[in-house]
Amino acid sequence: MFSAFAVHRVAAGMNRTQKFLSRTSVLSFSTISSASKVKAPPMVYISGEEMTHYASQLFVKQWIEPYFDTSNWETFDLSCKSRDETNDQVLKDAVEAGKRICAIFKEPTITPSTTQVKEMGLSKAFGSPNGAMRRGWNGITISRDTIHITGMELGYKNPVFFERHAVGGEYGAGWNQVGQGTLLTTYLPKDGSPPFVVDKRDLEDENNVVVVYHNPYDNVAELAHLFFKRCLEGEVTPYVVTKKTVFKWQEGFWSTMKEIFDAEYKEQFEKAGLLERCGGELQHLISDAATMQLIRWTDGGFGMAAHNYDGDMLTDQIAQVHRSPGFITSNLVGRRDDGVLIKEFEASHGTVSDLWNDHLAGKETSLNPLGLVEAMIGAMNHAATLQAEENPNDAEAQDVQQKVHAFTSTLRKALHNTFRYGQGTRDMAGPSGFTTEDFIDKVAWRLERYLARKEEDFPPPHLLEPDRRFRRNYAVDQEAIASLFAKYDKDADGFLDYEEFTKLLVKMNIAPQHKKKDSAEKAEENAKVPDV
Questions:
Q1: Alpha carbon distance 251, 182 (integer Å)
Q2: What local confidence, expressed as pLDDT, does residue 415 receive?
Q3: In this predicted structure, what is the pLDDT of residue 7?
C-alpha cells in the first residue's frame, strides 16, 4: 500500500505545523470506550445532502455514536426538499437553535439553480442559508485555515490562517438593470438629522446594472482581536489585506486593525519573534500583491485578514496551493447578545455531486472526508468548552470536556495515520486507495485500537505530498505545459538551465524577492559607510 507515496524522512526538530498540531493532539484517553458512552454536550447538527451527507452519516455512526450518546444534539434538515416542505421554517429554526446553543456542525448544502428547482420539483429557488446564519448569529468572521496532516507534506509547510469579514460587501448587494437616467444614493440618518446624497451619477448607456452595498464596520475591532489572538497562539505573522489605494472607503478596515494591533498586540508579537519577516510592524498588503504572495510563501507561517469578497477569493487560492478546498477549514464566528461566542463549523467544499451521481449509479466512490471531520472535531470541542465554562463548579461538565477533547485528538490521530499508512482515499493514495466506505471502516478500526491503547506494528512513515494527479478533478493540459516548457528551453535540449529557469519565474511573476529593509536596518547599513 505504500507504493502510492514517496517516503520521506523529515529532519529532526519540529516545524510550526508540528508544534501547532502537537498542542491540539495530546492523547489523554480519559476512560473513553464503547462500553460506557459519554453524554455529548448540546450541539446543533445541520444536515445537507448528496455525497457529503452520506459520508457524514457514515462517520457519525461508526466514529462518534459508539462512544457518545448524542441525544443532546438538535438536528435540522436543510436539504432542498425539507426547506421546500417547511417553506424554509427549518432554516429559521436552525438559526434560532444555533443562537441558543452556540455550537454548530453543518454539512454542505445545495443552493438550487433554476434548473435544479425544476429537477427537484421545488416551489421556488431558495437562497443560500449562509446569509441567514451570518445575520442571525451576528457574524464577525469566517476563519479559513489550512488543514495539516502530521507527518505528511502538503502545499504549505506551516499553518496559514485567514479571517474573512463575515458580513457586508457584494453578497448582500441590492441591484437592478436600468436604462439612461440619474442614480442617486441617499442616506437618511436614524437620528432624524437631515438626509444627504452619498453618490450621484448620470447613466448615459442604454443598458446599465446598478449595484448598492455597504460594509458594516462595528465588528471589525472584534475581528481584529480574534485574528491577532489566533495568530499569536498559532505562531504566525499577521497581515491585513485591502485595496484601499483605490477603494478609499476600505481605509477604515485597515486603520482599525492597525490601531488595535499597535495598542494591544505588537509587543507580544515582537517578543515571540513573529514580526521579523515583515519589518517589525503590522504590514498592509494590497489584495493584488496578496494573490502573488500566496503562491510564493509556501513555507506558510502567516495569517491574513480581509473584507468579505477578498477573503472569499483569496482563501480559494490558498486551498489550491495547499491542495484542494477539502484541506482548509470554514468556521463562522459570531456572538450571542450576552457575549457568548457562536461558532459554526463546516467543510469548505460543496456536496460533491459527481461522486453522489456515481454512488446512485452503483459505482465505487472515494470521498476524502478530512474537511468534514475537522468541522465535526471543531464543533464537538466548542460544545464541550461552552458546557464547561457555563458550569465551572460542575465536576461532570469538566470531565466531559476533557473526554471530548481527548477523543477528538485521538480521532484526528487515527485519521491522519490512516493516510500515512497508505490506506487513504484515492485522491491521496492513487487508484489503489480505499473507497468511501472502506476508508471510514479503516479509521473506525484504528480509532478503536488507539482508544484501547493498542500499539501499531511499526510507526507511520513521513511522506512527501501525494501526487496531485490523483485528484479526480485534475485537468492539467499537458500539451500546453510542453509548449510553455519549449518556450523557455531555448537550446531545445530538454532541460531548463539556471538562466532559463530564472526567466520563467520572472515572466510568471513568482520569482522570490529580496526582503525589503526596514528603517533600522537601513540606518545601521548607512552607519557602516565611511565618509569620503
A1: 28
A2: 97
A3: 37
Name the DSSP letter for residue 147.
Answer: -
Phi and psi, residue 480, nearest 5°:
-65, -40
pLDDT of residue 457: 85
Name which of 269, 281, 262, 284 is nearest 231 in CA terms: 269
Q: Which amino acid is at 454?
A: K
What pLDDT was estimated at residue 478?
A: 82
**What's the grid cell of residue 159?**
499553518
Nearest one of 348, 355, 352, 350 to 374, comparing CA atoms: 348
Cβ contact 103:42 at 8 Å: yes
Nearest alpha-carbon partner for 276 in 231, 237, 248, 241: 237
Spell out, as residue ranges, where the chain has pLDDT lower than 70. Answer: 1-31, 515-532
Write out the three cell numbers for 160. 496559514
- What is the pLDDT at residue 18? 53
> d(Cα 385, Cα 407) in Å, to the nearest integer?
14
Stated pTM of the model:
0.85
Cell of 236: 504566525
CA distance 436 to 451: 23
Q: How far is the C-alpha of 352 from the C-alpha of 53, rounded, in Å?
A: 10
CA dist., res. 279 & res. 300, Å (int) = 17
**What was the pLDDT predicted at 436?**
98
The residues, any chain, with a CB within 8 Å of residue 262's CB and separated by 6 or more, are 282
Strand ranges in 336-435 using DSSP code E only, listed in sequence order = 341-347
Q: Tell me if 2 sits within 8 A of 422, measured CB to CB.
A: yes
| Per-residue cell: 512 | 522570490
The 3-state secondary structure of 55-114 reads: HHHHHHHHHHCCCEECCCEEEEECCHHHHHHCCCHHHHHHHHHHHHHCEEEECCCCCCCH
For residue 510, give the C-alpha cell.
513568482
